[in-house]
Design a protein that fits this description.
single chain; alpha+beta; seven-stranded mixed beta sheet; two-stranded antiparallel ribbon; 17 helices; 11% strand
Length: 426
């Protein structure tokens, strides 16, 4: 039988042990009036419990271990933070335990009070070598129940990403526009070129680009120049013009470009080459500077999506994927997949984070509604969930599934997952 503290926490929290005629290891009657609040931080495992031991009503904390002797192994007998423990719940009692003042703590042994089906279901989940622990069972669950669990997991994912934005906001002295600009640039690089794109944005303040908002050539020159693409001799008239313009702007604003070698081309389709992505980034900046201010004030999700559609690139990029290397004509546009990636990973997250920071329920909801209106991502995780019968109808579900896989399934945290808990109680 597999027993660990996580499972014991779950069993205690939901009273899944035999609850009638409970007695402590010293023979006193026990009445669990309130098991307490689960504490996920330092200190006793459950706080604010209410328990009658014999004729005395106690209020305090509960500590849970596999063996009573774990109390001493964890050095709790020397820690005053555990002096308010009123009951020690263990699977197996093998040693009397005491507070720092020498008073003994009542012990409840529940190893033999746990229903066999719970431990068996838990073993089935933990012992399998499946892609996710419940891979063979998840199709048995009602779709509505799964989606309810995924909604909670989506909120968790957005909250985690919002914490990263809070850190970025501190760096940019509370400027939402600057934080959005840096995050948006990073998103333009996908995973392969996220770092150089972020470095580019940090080296080229949005406030400087705003000074040239009505001059597309200067914005293109600043972006390609700061990216390190205009340092070498160039042949075509368009990049030559950019280079000349950048040399002037670089001196005027005392700019230092990032190193070109940071940009990666390997295993990328030509349409995702850094040079093309930089041209798309420039087109977006040209169309809408201080974009986040516009997004935050816009109530219509369709209008927000439209802000990223039909970006007009310089025509040079219809016949080039790199400077001075002509290719067959192909009208370059900002593809649907790239737009979705930015809406999912930057726009929706910033709307949600702004809602948290300002207490605006409306903006939090807009972030979620935006995800619900976008097609689901197509990646290995989502395809595998589809194979086992869990389908994504929109990106809100696909984002939740990615969080589920990485934060719960891969770490086998079934006891913290609504889906896993459902199987344990079956």
């Amino acid at each position: 039988m597999i027993l660990n503290e996580d499972l014991l926490h779950y069993i205690w929290k939901f009273r899944l042990y035999q609850v009638s005629d409970l007695k402590s290891t010293s023979g006193e009657s026990l009445d669990i009036i309130r098991p307490g609040h689960h504490n996920h931080h330092a200190g006793p495992d459950f706080s604010n419990a209410k328990i009658r031991i014999g004729d005395t009503l106690w209020a305090g904390n509960v500590e849970i271990h596999i063996h009573s002797s774990d109390w001493c192994r964890h050095q709790h007998q020397f820690d005053k933070a555990y002096d308010n423990v009123i009951l020690h719940v263990v699977a197996y009692h093998d040693q009397r335990i005491f507070r720092t003042d020498g008073t003994e703590i009542a012990v409840l042994e529940i190893g033999n009070l746990i229903p066999e089906e719970i431990t068996q279901n838990y073993e089935d989940l933990m012992a399998g070598l499946n892609w996710i622990p419940c891979e063979r069972k998840i199709k048995q669950l009602d779709e509505l129940f799964i989606n309810t669990c995924l909604t909670r997991i989506l909120i968790e994912r957005l909250e985690e990403k919002s914490e990263l934005i809070e850190t970025l906001l501190i760096e940019v002295k509370g400027s939402w526009n600057d934080a959005f600009y840096i995050n948006l640039a990073r998103n333009f690089g996908f995973k392969t070129n996220a770092l150089p794109f972020e470095m580019l944005a940090r080296s080229l303040p949005q406030s400087l680009l705003a000074r040239y908002k009505d001059r597309p050539l200067q914005i293109e020159a600043l972006i390609f120049g700061q990216a390190g693409f205009l340092d070498n001799k160039l042949i075509d008239p368009y990049p030559q013009l950019l280079r000349k313009e950048y040399q002037f702007l670089r001196k005027k604003h005392d700019l230092r470009p990032i190193d070109k070698y940071l940009w990666k081309y390997m295993r990328l389709r030509p349409r995702n080459f850094p040079s093309v992505r930089l041209a798309q980034f420039a087109a977006l900046i040209i169309r809408s500077n201080h974009l986040f201010s516009k997004i935050i004030d816009e109530k219509d999700i369709a209008v927000i999506i439209a802000m990223f559609n039909k970006l007009k690139l310089n025509e040079y990029w219809n016949t080039h994927y790199r400077f001075d290397q002509e290719c067959k004509y192909s009208a370059v546009s900002f593809g649907e997949e790239a737009i979705s990636n930015i809406l999912i990973n930057t726009v929706s997250v910033f709307l949600f984070a702004f809602g948290i920071r300002t207490g605006s329920v409306i903006h939090r909801e807009r972030g979620i509604i935006l995800l619900e209106g976008l097609k689901p991502e197509q990646n290995a995780i989502i395809r595998k969930f589809n194979d086992i019968g869990v389908n994504s109808s929109n990106s809100a579900i696909s984002q939740a599934l990615i969080q589920l896989k990485k934060s719960y399934c891969d770490q086998k945290k079934c006891l913290s997952c609504g889906i896993g808990i459902k199987f344990l109680s079956k």
